[in-house]
């Protein structure tokens, strides 16, 4: 079975569902009421753990879902770009179905957690997903339902219906005497945070598999001092945990050097736009096209833009064009419409062939994929084939950014791993506000890579630290022995970017030297890496959490919230109330941080609703 997409089995009572359908058909209720009742009933069963029938009543809907939508919703329906800021309400055809708000106990979560990719059904399109196989209706026995999608990599298709996420087991505590080294690659992706934000704003807890701690933490700006020379600076800080008196949090923060817009290299961007039928909703293709227009406004006179689309076939829409020719670029974008199949593999090949023609040491050449991650026809169809296709172009100097849109059939796992293999970044756009953040700030920063194959290795002192665990970065894990192997791929840091990692540690003794943080990285066009070492001592630990910097407190609040949302075993017993207070104390005047505080409020309300429905 592939580690990329595994087949899903969901248990439910067929008799209950069939009865619900008959009752709905005979009911005098309005069609809207009937649909709502059926969705709640179906979601309740679809969200049950594998091989287990959930017979507890669905939680009562919470009125806070509507209140959680940001102020931008006022602009919805105005007919301009601002109207795209708020996600549209779920529709029967492309709908994120209500997720069960119940968070199982840690042990139950472990039993229900699959070891490979779990496609999560977020909507019910045209009836039940899959065919009933065996079981007696109404007898209470589990009935297996297999999705229509072929999830194995050897099959020539991706999952159909339902969002898909890669499942990563949270890092456990490691005894320092047994293994003192923690090694991982840099990561500045943010897709997980903005996708989870959308779930919460729509009144649903995000699936645990959708939450990646490092992408939550790195979605925010931190005030690290930039380097006076070299590619980056390192900032270390620690303080007592607000959850456990025997533990401390330690932060490793990296600040990349800032390169002004006028100083960076010329860029050649090939926008690869998914125009298949699955992109028809207003939060997909229209949002993607507006995002490209935002990007073009932020390019330089020496930059060029090309446009390739894929649906049932691949099409060259715009040859390399100066970014200053805005009228021509906009005219090409305005001709695009959604329809047809999804030949993503063919589109990737075409886009890369365009990009590689411009790739050189003096030009940044990047493919930017804008899609919901679906693929169902054409060559290079499987995830394995597409990833291999992406990776072969990295050595030729072409990098990749993936930008996700929409819900209902979003393939987060493919988009994230393509960006990883393509030496790039993965983002998710849920509003015009996020589009501006990604295409005005984050994308233009990644255009100028200041360090590539960036690896971190923290060596803890067994005389000072008894146990430790890295929060997140499970999909960026690197074998300790590969830290100094420069052939092993790692992450990239763009101009002005920050990378933050959090550890939870248990201290022992009075030894001053706690750990040594080593960072190994190559120059943008280099083949040999250089290594730097930074000591972490007790003097860098604050006596209390209140004495720590606002950036430290906020990073801990974000990381801990993510651990709670993904039901990490090490976070059992942690409170969202505590993370909210911590975030509020460090929010300052930053609007993004205040938005996060509101999201915790929504998560707390949804968690309370699940407890009432238990």
UniProtKB/TrEMBL annotation:
Alphabetical keyword list: Signal
Composition skew (Pro residues), residue ranges: 86-95
Polar residues composition-biased segments: 28-41
Signal peptide limits: 1-25
Region spans: Disordered: 28-97
Top-level lineage group: Bacteria
Stretches assigned to the VWFA domain: 268-443
One Pfam family matching this protein: vWF_A
Name of this protein: DUF3520 domain-containing protein
Source species of the chain: Corallococcus sicarius
